[in-house]
Structure formats: C-alpha cells, structure tokens
C-alpha cells in the first residue's frame, strides 16, 4: 500500500497556545486508525490541523509525498481528504440531494451508492437539512464527505449524542467502509471499544502527546490498560 499521510514531530494549536506536540503518524492507503483519549487532549485539534484550521508551530505534514502545510484549507478536500466534523455542518436550506450533489467529485461514490449505504437518506432526499433528525444529519454529513471520493476520511465523534439504534447503524456503516479498504479512515471517538472494534490501529493522546500506539485488537483485549489510558477508574 502506498503511503498517504506522514506526520513527523508535529506541534500545532490556536494562536499562541500549543495543543498537540511531537505527534508522529504514518497512514497508508486503506489503513484505519482509532484516535482516542479523554476530552480536551488534542484529538479534534489533530484533525483540524490536517484540514488547515490550526497554526503549525513545528514538524512536517506530508500528503501523498507533498507538503500539506502549504496547501490552503479549501484545497485539502480537493486533494483527497474528507472531513466529518463534530458539528456536522450540513447546509440547512438545501435538500438532502442538493447537499450531496453540491460537493460531488468523480469516483466510486455516487448518489446511487450513497443511497444504497444510507437508504434513509434516499427516503428523505427532498427534505431540507434542517428538517432532519440528529442521526439523519450525521448520515448526511458522512455521505457528503464520501461524495468527495476521498483517499482519507476523518470522522470526529461520529456517534456523539445519538440514540443507541443509530449508533449501531453507523457502526455497521463505518465498519463496512473500513472493511472495503478503498480509503484510509481516522476515527475520533469517546466510545473507545466501539472504535477499536472497527479499526486496525490505535493511538491514544494525553495532554497533546502520544502516550500509546498499537494495533487496535491488542488494546481492545487489554481492558486494564485501556481503562487507564482513557482515565476510567
């Protein structure tokens, strides 16, 4: 598999504040990573840095062999990075189908394939974004990112605030996306065991630094270590 993303010694934050420090990470095509840690340790900041929304203080960000830090934020989606932020950011005054069509780029993911993945969106395709439930908005946010046909998909707390039945559905969908191996996926998730069950690799942050990196299966199997890393007990 070709290398998609390489981060070396990355320190970044907002203004004068450094939130993440000394981050190293390499992802290849089709890789999957659970990015874990307690609230406020820098997980979202790392994703925001990949999207160009933070101030990089030190280190390098390489995307498909070129310097990602030099690429303006608005061009990173075009370069192949799809992002589903916590806030979802669906267009409230556009229909579901317009939300999807507005960002579509050529590739595997078409309207038909997205509707096959999320039948509920096809049922609601003529509804406006602000007429959807929270779970439907999350489905739309993921579907819209897929319509970019990204090489890397960033999912920031995709299960947050959703009903258990919706969490189960999204777990199935995200697991299938990872299983297909067509793109790399980074999942930031408070439901640590759920994220580990879907991914191949795991990274845990604390106070902006990497405190653990391993395969997901071994961390999932080590309940005591996982609980300690997540600040449980």
Automatic annotation (TrEMBL):
It comes from the Bacteria. Pfam families: ABC_tran (PF00005). GO terms for biological process: L-amino acid transport. Residues 5-232 form the ABC transporter domain. Signal peptide: none annotated. PROSITE patterns: ABC_TRANSPORTER_1, ABC_TRANSPORTER_2. GO terms for molecular function: ATP binding; ATP hydrolysis activity; branched-chain amino acid transmembrane transporter activity. Keywords: Amino-acid transport, ATP-binding, Cell inner membrane, Cell membrane, Membrane, Nucleotide-binding, Transport. The keyword Transmembrane helix does not apply. The keyword Iron does not apply. InterPro entries: AAA+_ATPase (IPR003593), ABC_transporter-like_ATP-bd (IPR003439), ABC_transporter-like_CS (IPR017871), BCAA_Transport_ATP-bd_LivF (IPR052156), P-loop_NTPase (IPR027417). Belongs to the ABC transporter superfamily. This is Amino acid/amide ABC transporter ATP-binding protein 2, HAAT family.
